[in-house]
Write a structure and sequence with these properties.
There is one protein chain. With about 210 residues, this protein is an all-alpha fold. Helix 4 packs across helix 5. The protein starts with about 20 loop residues before the first helix and ends with a helix.
């Protein structure tokens, strides 16, 4: 896309972009934050531009419409969320230790409150906007497959003895994570240690973890 000019007549080809930074990704990150704070329908392009440190002109250089910006920010944030989950599922061979690392990766996120608020808002927005539902479903499925792989490894190695069917055990763990996300997002006072403790205690119980 060619260089455009902002309303003041100045070039916006590099407006607001720091050396070595990708302004498009910074805009998407700012848009995801604006959605978390205001909701999909109330978030404004000027909030995004201010948060990203760019002009409205540069914003429109990358995204022609408000809906395009926020839909792409939604998809970008979902992808970022999945990448965080996968980072927590390391090459650790022991299934329970691998789950512990995953839980700690989630709990120790320096942006825990923002991440939880973003995810909670995305789920609420998807309930109102059908075009967002595929992204939420994709995130749920990726998360389920990640946890399911750990659980199946633990069962196969005789380290997990679930008291319920594996699928039910996995869904119970996922529900615990969703509940913790909502608790953090709502400002209930749940911090990283409580977040990790609830998830690990739930998983240990339903998976029948053998020490």
């Amino acid at each position: 896309m060619g260089e455009r000019r902002d309303s003041g007549g100045g070039s916006v080809g590099d407006s607001g972009a720091g050396a070595g930074e990708d302004p498009r990704e910074r805009i998407l990150r700012s848009a995801a934050l604006a959605m978390a704070e205001r909701g999909f329908d109330a978030a404004r392009m000027r909030d995004v531009a201010r948060g990203a440190g760019v002009s409205i002109g540069l914003l429109q250089h990358y995204f022609d419409t408000r809906d395009l910006l926020f839909r792409e920010a939604f998809d970008w944030s979902i992808g970022d969320l999945i990448a965080r989950w996968r980072k927590g599922s390391s090459a650790e061979p022991d299934p329970w230790r691998r789950f512990e690392l995953l839980a700690r990766e989630l709990a120790d996120d320096p942006d825990l409150q923002r991440r939880c608020a973003t995810w909670t808002e995305f789920c609420a927005s998807a309930a109102r906007r059908p075009e967002l539902r595929d992204g939420v479903r994709r995130a749920h499925e990726e998360w389920r497959e990640l946890v399911l792989g750990i659980v199946e490894s633990g069962v196969a190695e005789g380290k997990f003895t679930p008291a319920v069917p594996v699928d039910v055990a996995v869904r119970t763990v996922l529900a615990a994570v969703d509940g913790c996300d909502m608790a953090v997002a709502s400002g209930s006072g749940m911090g990283p240690e409580d977040y990790a403790a609830v998830i690990l205690a739930t998983a240990r119980s339903v998976l029948g973890v053998r020490d």
